[in-house]
Amino acid sequence: MEYILKTECLSKKYRKFTALDGLGMSVPKGSIYGFVGRNGAGKTTLIRLICGLQKPTSGSFELFGVKNSDKKILEQRKRIGAVVETPSIYLGLTAEENLKMQYLTLGLPDYSGLKELLELVGLGDTGKKKARNFSLGMKQRLGIAVALCGSPDMLILDEPINGLDPQGIIEMRELILRLNRERNITVLISSHILDELSRLATHYGFIDNGRIVREMSAEELEQASRKCIYIEVTNTQPLALALDKLGLEYKLIDDRNAEIYGKPNISKLVTELAPSGCEILSVNERDESLESFFISLVGGGKT
Amino acid sequence: MIKLLRTNFFKMYMSWSFWLTMLLLPVVNVLNIMYNDDKYLGLHAKFGFERWSLVQYIDSCFGHMKYFGYAAIIVAGVLIGDEFDSGALRNKIVAGYSRAELYISYIITAVCECIAVHLFSVLSAYTICVVRYGNGDTDALLKIILYSLPPVAAFAAFTVLCITAAGDRMTGMVISFVSNLVVYIIIDFLIMEALQGYYGAPDAAERELLIIGDSLMPTAYSQWFYDVGYMAINTGLEETPSCLWCLITFVILSVAGNTVFGKRNLK
User: Fold this and answer.
1) E strands in chain B
2) Is B97 on the interface with A (CB under 8 A)?
3) What's the domain count of chain B?
């Protein structure tokens, strides 16, 4: 697998406070990498290090295969666009002027594509309205438009849906998905709004106390947290035979309890179990969300 | 670097603080001319000058230097401070520029911005004087303008340093304002009095040292352009401030700012 970003034992200390503690993560090319962690876990610190806003205390990272200690890292940074915490926009300028500023910064030959970019983020009709008069959602989208100038290969979004209303959240989600699918932009998105992240991410990195607790793909997460039925029976041996017969995936926990994945037809199951005298004592549905999975990883008491 | 400067100058062109200061600062000189009109005309007649002498009436065109430290805070402070406050600085770092490149571009922009405002103030007042009092001495004008550029640059560098050290516009501007005021009131005042022999007449060596001290501080250096006791840049009768020492201040402030910016954890 090709990785856009790889970190190795990355640490960042502010005097006595350790924000990142030997963090290691890998962001695959073309993915939407959901960076999950509670407030203060180190998400924004990592993003600041990658963007060059701060320097790591120890450890290293590779961006597009170039180490951060290499002078060529400055060239590689041109291939990323970022919105760190708040959108980086001039409030006294219009949306178009903000993009012009970024075009000039990047040294792009002309302003072609500027209108298209504004249309893409839904700000095509803002005219002479100054950015200070924009809603929070519009500012976020303008921040993304600025980050998209120069057609980056990777987009880093730090808490992009914080403070947005439901409509704004939906628009942001659609925009991120469109950028990933249509423009093949790799997206690193940090958030603590897990439900929203679960609708976007193809890969996850769970961070706690400055360390990656676990990295996994969306499929692996689904596998680990998929819907299942907890069933309690008088004997699990006939249950196993019946489930095999019905073609259902399952896991025996002990002599009386089992987990069944998928949706079993309970009437058929009862019919299959009846000849062996096995009785169903209780049935409970379990639906582990990203949230509960995260809590199981980092410990619920602390959140 | 060229790309950065183009961006910064585009921002300067769009900046309200730049145009407002450009508009208001010359008013200081215009008011000076209006206030001293009789005096200028009287001196003209009394000493029988053949032409209007900028050297004698320096405060007509350079009176704004008295407030230039504060003008620089508004002009450069708002523009460069906005880079920190808006987060636009982040975009530039992500765009692959080194911190040194960024800082140098900010210094160049701030200096150019301040020089533009300064020159406009001088030339607009000079034009009024030429119309009112007749032809002036352009050689003297150019020479005094050259003398006036180091403190203008140093004021700009000091403002950028304060904003960089503070990390946000408002705090940086307040630090810059208070520092200018403190230097003006305390240090500058003491040097001025020492130079004027208030604490006993200084000997030649002491006088040279005091002038170097005066030249090192842009607020003090600026006084040579509006204080009648020191308006002697081209007369040869009095000591003149040292451009070189003031430029050294500019370089020190710029290097210090670059070092602070290079080590700073940005948000």
Assistant:
1) none
2) yes
3) 1
Contact A88 B95 (CB under 8 A): no
Q: Which residue has the tokens 């996850």?
A: A204
Between CA A186 and CA A181 the distance in angstroms is: 9
Give the closest residue to A48 by CA, choosing from B259, B89, B1. Answer: B89
Residues 119-148 of A with CB under 8 A from B: 146-147
CB atoms within 10 A of CB A109: 6
Q: How far is B93 from chain A (nearest CA, A)?
A: 7
Q: In angstroms, what separates the C-alpha of B13 from chain A's closest C-alpha?
A: 12
Asked whether residue A178 falls in the same domain as residue A48, the answer is yes
Higher per-residue confidence, A171 vs A186: A186
Q: Per the structure block, which two tokens stand in for B6?
A: 């183009």
Q: Kindly state whether B102 is in contact with chain A, defined as any CB-CB distance less than 8 angstroms.
A: no
Suggest the residue from B4, B89, B94 to mutate for an interface test with chain A (most A CBs closer than 10 A): B94
Distance of CA A188 to the CA centre of its chain: 7
Which amino acid makes up residue A8? E
Chain A residue closest to B17 (CA)?
A92
* Strand, helix or coil for residue B128: helix
| Residue spans of beta strands (DSSP E) within A42-107 | 58-63, 66-67, 80-83
The interface pTM score, or ipTM, of the predicted complex is 0.71
- pLDDT single digits (tens) A7-50: 888 888 888 888 888 888 888 888 899 888 887 888 888 898 98
Burial zone of B147 (CB within 10 Å; 0-12 exposed, 13-18 middle, 19+ buried): buried
Same domain as A9, residue A28: yes
Indicate the number of domains in chain A.
2
Same domain, A48 and A89: yes
Alpha carbon distance A93, A115 (integer Å): 16
The pLDDT value given to residue B117: 92
A102 and A150 belong to one structural domain: yes
Counted across chains A and B, CB pairs separated by less than 8 A come out at 82
Q: State which residues form the domain around B40.
A: 2-255
Q: Are residues A83 and A146 located together in one domain of the fold?
A: yes
Give yes or no: residues A256 and A193 share one domain: no
Within 63-92 of B, beta carbons closer than 8 Å to A belong to: 82, 86-92
Residues in B 9-68 with any Cβ partner in A closer than 8 A: 10-11, 14, 16
Within a domain: A296? no
Q: Is the pLDDT of residue A234 over 60?
A: yes
Structural contact between residues A215 and A26, judged by C-beta atoms closer than 8 angstroms: yes
Query: Taking CB atoms and an 8 Å limit, are B90 and A81 in contact across chains?
Result: no
Q: Look at A97 and B14 and tell me if their CB atoms are within 8 Å.
A: yes
